[in-house]
């Protein structure tokens, strides 16, 4: 949750709210049969370490970008190893089995998005050959005038066979875009839009265990009078999404600032957990934390006055 200052009572839309938290990908588990994270050797207790619990599990791998290059820290916490050079790589997204990492390659760091590339990885997380371009925005027909389409926010399906992404047709001048899915093993291609709805902002994209794609949608122009968005689900094999939740909060509260104007706190985005359950903050005055299933059959309010939240990791 972040604080945002405004100079007038009108809520200023936070830039790229739909891409919040998608730009940083941390992979914390290796799948059996591909590579194993062995327990760390337990040191003998010492007088100086009596109050510090020893690490019982070796952490997974953490992918990140710095100065336009892609790095991996494995196990997480060790110095990072550079993978390919830029010129301006960003938004790393490791595949579920760690055999690939998708990322957005941009011409300059100031660009909103760029091209979708994939780097194949060995079991030791070393590059296997040079990276390859999977989606070239120039091949897409959604550009506006002289502005080419731009790819952003790659996310893998649970099977590792597809990559979901957002195709923005305005160079980032307007948030949101087309929700697309590309096959991960066919090289460069121009995927067709799953659906389009002009005037809507899409964000918080999550590929569910069922194969469905969940995301939030907010019509353009909504402000303080209706600060809400919906949760929509595109089922596997379907061509149109369905709306499951209609009262997802966008802003939690706004307070007057001693420096003039006011500060508005953005609500945390919905978070999906095991079994395709979702937790979200609703638009009620009490900032209710609600948990419900994929079809919103039995929503349950957990508490009110909630700021942030997170699911516990799945049992291993």
Automatic annotation (TrEMBL):
The alphabetical list of record keywords is: Signal
Instruction: Please give the Gene3D superfamilies that the UniProt record associates with this protein.
Output: TolB, C-terminal domain
What's the protein name? Lipoprotein LpqB
Chain intervals for the UniProt region annotation (Disordered): 34-54, 75-96
Among InterPro entries, the record links this protein to: 6-blade_b-propeller_TolB-like
Stretch forming the signal peptide:
1-29
Residue ranges of coiled coil: none
